[in-house]
Design goal:
alpha+beta; 19 strands; binds 1,4-dihydronicotinamide adenine dinucleotide; binds the ligand N[C@@H](CC=O)C(=O)O
Length: 512
Amino acid sequence: MKNKTEVKLIKNRAIIKFEGKNFLGEIGIDGRIFKALTYARISVGVISQQAIENGISVLVSEADAEKAVNCLINEFEQERKSGKVSLIYSINNVSVIGFVSKDFNKIMSELGRNNIFPLILNQVAAENRVNIVVTSSQDEKAKNIIEAEIFARPKTVHLAIIGHGNVGSTLIDQVLESSEEIRNRKKIDLKIVAVANSKKIALNRSGFSENWNEEILVAERPSKVEELIAFSQQNQLENLIVVDNTASKEFVKNYPVLAENGFDLVSSNKIFNTLPISEYRNFRHILNKKNKKYLYETNVGAGLPLIDTIKLLHLSGENITRIKGVFSGSLSYIFNNFSVRDEKFSTILKEAMEKGFTEPDPREDLSGSDVARKLLILARELDLINEFGDIKIENLVPENLRNLTKDDFISRLSELDVVFDEVKKSQQKSHVLRFTGDLHGDLQKEKGELDVKLISVPVDSALGQLKGSDSIFEIYTESYGENPIVIMGAGAGAKVTARGVFGDILRLSENK
Ligand SMILES: NC(=O)C1=CN([C@@H]2O[C@H](COP(=O)(O)OP(=O)(O)OC[C@H]3O[C@@H](n4cnc5c(N)ncnc54)[C@H](O)[C@@H]3O)[C@@H](O)[C@H]2O)C=CC1
Ligand SMILES: N[C@@H](CC=O)C(=O)O
């Protein structure tokens, strides 16, 4: 049962800390502290004794802090000389929050998740009455969190959307469209308070509306993570989630500092999960330490529920023996169409780009790197310690086009036509081209074998029948034997991917 009383916030307090050896429980010490402060006409608030640290803390008005310290220094002059009292000092800029709640543990865990750890906690258990002392830079945020809990108010979740290209802009629109329904149904108030591209970041404490695009046009702040962190701290924003919808190798370097500063993370960007295993593990260590979460369901199979399925199977002890299939939505579209249509390769590639299936630079797909990343991400979900360099990748980009700028490459797409015409013609009759990923070998060992390659398969085979931009993942396990678990569906596209990212945001929000 929630207890509906006011949550009181008293600002401009200071903690007077009194530290020493073996004086706790000694008759008269508390009395002398009070007497000295009363004589000095200083009113005393919350009191706490720390048995382990051997200290006493009292709360006074910040204006009285210096006077309180001096008066206690005088009172305990002898004990200071003998070393019995080692330190008397003040911690300024703190606030007291008083409330009544039966769900004390829940409130403390919500505060902790938001990096708020009270400096003093004073609880009258019989009355469910609690006073906590927090730094003033976190007091409003703490009050909001406590009120949301006690009064069962919709909890506000603050979102920072990094990257507003195909996936990012679709996600923003989806969030704005559904936010009212989510507030009513789930009691979660999703607020997009930051939107960034590679150059600028737009910040809006009250949350962006449908005209977010205009706000980013006139934004002047550089797209730096420091701007976002400072903004979240200055505005005391609780329940923070940063969403990475870039393909940036640079932005992922910010993940650890974001987790350190209280952000959970959601990412459609696959780069972080394919960094060297030491960085991959170190980040997970930071997440654990800071009680933060990182979700990336769309890293493999866009909106398809693949990572979760693999995670669950693996966690439940199911022995996954092989994962293979067509992992790329764009290459699925390209080869499904190129194999059966009388059309140039470059024309079909352009279609895939226009439909938003390819990476920002389509060579990430054609080179096999994007499929290789997906394969590595799955391998690591199985606790394999493969590195990107272990993957055998067939690169479909001719060597002379590999080192061009993206724009130069795109202006020379027609050079791909001859190459792929040859490949198409060289197939057996009734065969089609498919670009596949295969994680195999002894997956009980430290490393698996990862292969990424273009193959030619009979048109009536399972892979041969793939349509549109569908991906197919065959998951072989010990219990399922020769019949794999098959997950198939749209493997790329802004709408399905943004929906998958949105799902991750909701999963995090519900646990907040
Ligand atoms: N398109 C799809 O079907 C799928 C895409 N993804 C992933 O989604 C991500 C985004 O893809 P798209 O939206 O198609 O790309 P896009 O090129 O349309 O958009 C990328 C956005 O990121 C911004 N950006 C780049 N570097 C940045 C930085 N350092 N800081 C801030 N912003 C930066 C760009 O300004 C742009 O707004 C990629 O990582 C992709 O692999 C994942 C699954 C499916
Ligand atoms: N470019 C990727 C998009 C999804 O990850 C693909 O084609 O699969």
